[in-house]
UniProtKB/TrEMBL annotation:
Pfam families: adh_short (PF00106). This is SDR family oxidoreductase. GO terms for molecular function: oxidoreductase activity. The lineage of its organism: Bacteria, Pseudomonadati, Bacteroidota, Flavobacteriia, Flavobacteriales. SUPFAM superfamilies: NAD(P)-binding Rossmann-fold domains. Belongs to the short-chain dehydrogenases/reductases (SDR) family. CDD domains: 17beta-HSD-like_SDR_c (cd05374).
Length: 284
């Protein structure tokens, strides 16, 4: 039986990923910051008779990560797959978002991944086997207001993952980056309008997310992709997932940097027309 450790499993993509691996016969270590929120998850595990162990781990804490992973390794000897899913989102213009929000996003989305990865790499390297799946985002390719802080963390994750993949391939360790688009999760639903913002981007983005979520893409789609890449043995680094993921990425690639900045800076009317023309979304 293969073992998988997944972070951020209290809801959304993380929870669905834990269930997907459990149903596929893996021994799953489903970690989360606050296990008191896992009552419904525990009920599903019991009803489905899944081999899933819920463990408390705060990826923001060196001590918490070390203690949790050391305990798992001591009892079970090895982790075949690490899924770095835990993540948070904070949105706001660069001027208006406070420094704590910038630091919190980077702490979880980037340094949290590093903590878990570094805790497991020595064992994977020693055994010359393992798979590390980092859940990034389309925002790891596209940066615009008011998601500057979030995009910065995902750009950093993409860069680190690319470097890591080259370092560990000689030890037969695979590194995979999964890049969801707009997925029907609490995080996506929480993208809201800041009525007091001096900048129009908050209202625009909230409208785009709201329009996209009218035909929602479920988190199970991402969970299935994560399981697929874990089991496939693929060495392909990046895997966009969701009907809008690849189109968004290619849309950005079709523009020069200056064109992208001009698009972000254009009038509200021109922006809404562009989104409707390119993606069929009425973001107004």
């Amino acid at each position: 039986m293969k073992h998988v450790l997944i972070t951020g499993t209290s809801k959304g993509i993380g929870l669905e990923t834990a269930l997907a691996f459990g149903i596929s016969g893996y021994k799953v270590f489903a970690t989360m910051r606050n296990t008191s929120k896992a009552d419904d998850f525990k009920q599903i595990i019991a009803t489905e008779s899944l081999d899933i162990t819920i463990a408390e781990m705060d990826v923001d804490s060196d001590d918490s990560v070390k203690q949790c992973i050391d305990d798992i390794i001591k009892k079970h000897k090895f982790i075949d797959v690490l899924v770095n899913n835990a993540g948070i989102e904070r949105h706001g213009s660069i001027e208006e978002l406070n420094m704590k929000d910038f630091k919190d996003v980077m702490e979880t989305n980037y340094f949290g991944v590093l903590r878990c990865t570094k805790a497991l790499l020595p064992l994977m390297r020693k055994n010359r086997a393992g798979c590390i799946i980092n859940i990034a985002s389309v925002s790891g390719h596209i940066s615009s207001g008011p998601l500057g802080a979030y995009a910065a963390s995902k750009f950093a994750l993409e860069a680190m993952s690319e470097a890591l993949a080259g370092e560990v391939k000689p030890f037969n360790i695979r590194v995979v980056v999964v890049e969801p688009g707009i997925i029907n999760t609490q995080m996506a639903s929480d993208i809201s309008i800041d009525a007091e913002s001096l900048y129009p981007h908050s209202k625009r983005l909230a409208g785009m997310f709201s329009a996209s979520l009218k035909t929602p893409t479920p988190p199970t789609l991402v969970a299935d992709k994560i399981l697929e890449v874990a089991e496939s043995g693929t060495w392909k680094l990046r895997h966009p997932v969701g009907p809008d993921a690849e189109p968004f990425i290619q849309w950005r690639k079709s523009m020069t940097d200056e064109q992208w900045i001009d698009w972000s800076a254009c009038s509200n009317e021109d922006w809404y027309k562009s989104v409707e023309q390119d993606f069929g979304l009425d973001a107004r």
